[in-house]
Amino acid sequence: MLKEEIIQSNKDYFMDVFSGRVPIVVDKGEGIKIYDKEGNEYLDFLAGIAVNALGHSHPKVNEAIKEQVDKVIHCSNIYYIEPQAKLNKLLVENSVGDKVFYGNSGAEANEGAIKLARKYFKVQNKDRYEVITTTKSFHGRTLATIAATGQEKYQKSFIPLPEGFKAVPYNDLEALKEAVSDQTAAIMVEPIQGEGGINVATQKYLQGVRQLCDKEGILLILDEIQTGLGRTGKLFGYEHYGIEPDIFSLAKALGNGVPVSAFLAKEEVANAFKPGDHGSTFGGNPLACAAAYSTLSTILDENLVEHAARIGNYFQTRLQDLVEKYDIVDSVRGKGLIIGLEVNIDANEIVNTAFEKGLLINAVSDTTLRFVPPLIVQENDIDQAVGILEEIIAEKN
Ligand SMILES: *Cc1c(COP(=O)(O)O)cnc(C)c1O
């Protein structure tokens, strides 16, 4: 099919829900590069929205996937499989979680986390069901997760929403304390708000949230879907804060592009789930687990977490130079390789020009550019990306 036909076919047959789709037909990817059907090359600093942690077509992950495809793709959680057993152990041994459950998307992992929090209090005969979240958060697109997402734009067309969610401002411990009631089951936050603008939780805030949960006997759920698995320069975002969540969710980077998500919980919490309480047909199937196992073991074996911390600092330093040099660039935010650049012009204009110059990025607000490149990104890639950005910015300044 021709590029124009592919785009037109989408307009004709695919539901029109994605705003600002970029006119590129992706054909293949390799490392941090993406190629379209005409053979044009793009530097991928979006990584499928923080998904392709190991870049595209990673040889180890692709090999693991191919090997699994030829054995068995799916068989149901009614049976036991080795790839899941290996992944369970790897996730638990490298995190503060004791038990894991798999789903297919971030939203599904968060739904499971919320169900587990409710069940935890149900088995104690306590009437605690409410989950307090934060404004500008993003937890997914299902009904319960848009109820959890503290942004009206995702909610307003779909009311009534499931009950038991309340959002208060991020990084505001006092607001959280005031919101806690006898019905509160959990507080759910992102260590860094991704979709909401790359807003980083302060040390004082997340530590305070942990203390508040301990004091009130409620659960702390961390949504690590975007921050997890090395992106922040630690394997999990919570490691920056010296705290442990009771439940946390993972998704984006977990399968390097194969759909797989997970939520993990402390033993005592996880034990609230009994046979029949939760499930998933596809979740944690052989293919998904083989992809996730090889992704996570590669991240660990190749020290990509340390690399993300180091190269992320380099990236932030280069972006800080732009802040100092140009009036239209205001500030840099983030940790490791989850970075926001605040500008005071239309961020989407920069995104579109960057695309024309061969750099894929996106904007998470009208004035915030987001950079979430693969963790394997190197200094020369960053130099190239910053070079393109500077060209655009210098022209608009
Ligand atoms: C992307 C994201 C989700 C939703 O994940 P889906 O796979 O799109 O359902 C939830 N929480 C956070 C923090 C995310 O970044």
Short description:
With 397 residues, this protein is of the alpha/beta class.
Spatial order of the strands in the main sheet?
A: 4-12-11-10-7-5-6
Q: How many β strands by DSSP?
A: 17
Strand content: 15-25%
Distance between the termini: 40 Å
Question: Under the CATH scheme, which class of the largest domain?
Answer: Alpha Beta
Largest sheet, strands/sense/barrel: 7 strands, mixed
Residue-averaged pLDDT? 97
Please tell me how large the radius of gyration is.
21 Å
Helix content: 25-40%
Query: How many individual domains?
Result: 2
Please name the CATH topology of the largest domain.
Aspartate Aminotransferase, domain 2
Category from helices, strands and their pairing: alpha/beta
The helix count comes to 14
- Which CATH architecture of the largest domain? 3-Layer(aba) Sandwich
Secondary structure layout plus pairing:
Elements: H1 3-13, E1 26-30, E2 33-36, E3 41-44, H2 47-50, H3 59-71, H4 82-93, E4 99-103, H5 106-122, E5 130-134, H6 143-148, H7 152-155, E6 165-168, H8 173-179, E7 184-189, E8 192-193, E9 199-200, H9 203-216, E10 219-223, E11 247-250, E12 261-265, H10 267-270, H11 286-301, H12 304-325, E13 329-335, E14 338-343, H13 347-356, E15 359-360, E16 362-365, E17 368-371, H14 379-396
Parallel strand pairs: 3-15, 5-6, 5-7, 7-10, 10-11
Antiparallel strand pairs: 1-2, 2-3, 4-12, 8-9, 11-12, 13-14, 14-17, 16-17
Helix pairs in contact: 3-11, 4-11, 12-14
Pyridoxal-5'-phosphate binds at residues 105-107, 110, 138-140, 190, 194-195, 223, 225-226, 251-252.
